[in-house]
Design goal:
Layout (H helix, E strand, L loop, with lengths): L5 E6 L3 H12 L4 E7 L2 H11 L3 E4 L8 H11 L4 E6 L4 H10 L3 E4 L4 H12 L4 E2 L1 H12 L3 H4 L9 H11 L4 H8 L3 H15 L4 H10 L6
Parallel strand pairs: 1-2, 1-3, 3-4, 4-5, 5-6
Helix pairs in contact: 2-3, 3-4, 4-11, 8-10, 8-11, 9-10
Amino acid sequence: MSTQPKKVMIVDDHTIMRDGLQALLSSEADYEVVGTVPDGKTAIRSVAALKPDIILMDLSMPGTGGIEAIAHIKRQHPNVKIVALTFHKEDKYIHATLEAGADAYVLKDDSRTELFTALSSVLKGKSYLSPSICDRVVAGYLAGGDANAEQPSWEILTHREREVIKLIAEGNKTKEIAEYLSLSPKTVEKHRTNLMRKLDLHSVSAVTVYAIQNGFITH
């Protein structure tokens, strides 16, 4: 007796990557690609309509990135399985992604066998980590997360900077943050620059990772 293929949604800002993954999954009878979207914000909006069983989620995307999208989707649709598919091998990305609720973490330079093993694992209710990062993640947890302790403490931020980092991590643009906090966009940019300098962060994705690790976004 045949079973229905599992519905997959692909989230990646690169068209070639989306098309390639769709072609790869469509070659397997066990999976049906029900949608491909270019960013986390669209993914959050699309889950209710597409009803995927699994989401393949890139992490670094413009606007709402993968980590914050994972946290949002898991709050609203806890039964949807999410496989993070990324080039990032750094501990801070791995820990923040898993903490946000991802069921698996696969690298884009892994083999197709690894990807399908991850998909099969999460459908069985298991977690999956790429073999190339598994040992490092385990070692990090056994060491008590010492890598995270090297980060500057959020306590050096002002109250306003803490508000701004939370809103950045939730995917808000400068104009939206300015309106929400009744500030000028120029002032928001100044707060953004200051907090990134204080925390030694160099991108919005890094701000998001830091915000999730330090409890600015709850999930």
